[in-house]
Amino acid sequence: MFGDSRRTVVVVGAQWGDEGKGKLVDVLAERAAWVVRYQGGANAGHTVDIAGSKFVLHQIPSGILHPGVRCAIGNGVVLDPDTLFHEIDGLVKDGVDVEGRLYVSERAHLVLPYHKLVDSESTASKAIGTTGRGIGPAYEDKVARRGVRVLDIRSTKRLRQLVEQGVDHANAQLARFGSKKRVNADETVNLLASLAPRLLPLAEDVGLVIHRAIKSGAAVLLEGAQGSLLDVDHGTYPYVTSSNTTAGGAATGAGIAPQAIDAVLGVVKAYTTRVGAGPLPTEMDEKLADETRKLGAEFGATTGRPRRCGWFDAVVVRYAARVNGLTDLAVTKLDVLDTFDKIALCSGYDSDGEAYTEFPADLTVLERAKPLYEWMPGWKKSTADARRIEDLPDAARRYLDRMQAMVETPITYVSVGTRRDQIIGL
Ligand code: IMP
Ligand code: MG
């Protein structure tokens, strides 16, 4: 992905999240000076498998696993300071050196205990099937201009005022939900006071730092969380997360100019998964979904929930290619399909007798959408040891060729297993 004319690269999920962005970021970080997270928060779960040990990262960019790479959490992220330090401590215990390599935007908003409580007590959050990490409520406070930012911790007086305002609002919401639980400002202020000595030294003007890195010619990787179909504007609203997961969010969420972005890599699974409620037009029947879930270990990295499974939906990914401006595609988990007799690709939908080849915005159309499939023969052979495209069985190559044609984006990487080395770079 990186080259002389490609210095700033965005990695996004081009489905509903869990496409394997963590692995791609880990592979690409080898050549990056900086890795920046630009949206989302501890709702994300990026799993990276190195020599048999699995790291699940929720907030810290996956680049942290490469010594020498500097990592930043951008202004577009909602940061849970409590879990941030658990994550740092866990990495240090596993021998990863974090000291002096991790920066946090002073403009990033904080996810506070009352956001998590509101998320878990809200019936609206339950209906969407949120991760319960307080993401929606924290972004709500940000947009409503009552959020608490990292830099606010510098002044105890200002911090208390802002927290009291947030707590009042949270308690009013809890009362409205019919919940008996209440929060008080003291516990949040005390928590932040105890974390301040560790958090404030990490606080930086991340946009400025990254701007300077780009100007100096450094390779910068912008790491998205969740997937394009969970984007608050472009996803299956209201069954979405509360941030812009797509490439435009990379500019606003890292604090850099859109023109600074040279390339956008979209990561997709060779099939489709989704956690939480909302439309999934290519969802498999229970038996096949069960089999795929077992083969692909499709359980949420953050919540442990079983993921819903479906066939590859080219309508979805072509849409994601358009809204993100994808220059490249990475296809992950091809090996999960190794034992299937036949494999489907969705080329369009029929909804109430009308044909759709472009992804519709209207949820009622999507909910009634019947996928139109192209069936291809399976390859019935292990792909786990393939390291070059020539190593793949013909049927697997034909499947990828067809996918590439339907999505109108060149495939640059194919991943055939969870380990770092199980990847084909084209
Ligand atoms: P929230 O982001 O916790 O508010 O959840 C909103 C929706 O996004 C729910 O359907 C979640 O399951 C989904 N979601 C949030 N984060 C992820 C992720 O990292 N992977 C997959 N789905 C996610
Ligand atoms: Mg995930």
Report on this structure.
The chain is α/β, with parallel strands linked by helices and 426 residues long. Helices cover 33% and strands 20% of the residues. It has 13 helices and 20 strands. Strands 9-7-5-2-10-1-11-15-19-20 form a 10-stranded mixed beta sheet, with helices on both faces. A hairpin with a 7-residue loop joins β19 and β20. The site of inosinic acid has 20 residues, from α5.
Task: Provide a quick synopsis of the model.
By secondary structure, the chain is an alpha/beta fold. Helix content is 33%, strand content 20%. The protein is built from 13 helices and 20 strands.
The computed structural class is: alpha/beta
Helix content: 25-40%
Number of strands: 20
Sheet with most strands: strand arrangement: 9-7-5-2-10-1-11-15-19-20
Output the radius of gyration.
21 Å
Bound molecules: inosinic acid, magnesium ion
Mean pLDDT: 96
The fraction of residues assigned to DSSP E strands is 15-25%
**Describe the biggest sheet?**
10 strands, mixed
**Low-confidence runs (pLDDT<50, min 5 residues)?**
none
User: Globular, elongated, flat, extended or rod-shaped: what is the shape?
Assistant: globular
- State the separation between the terminal residues, measured CA to CA: 10 Å
Number of helices: 13
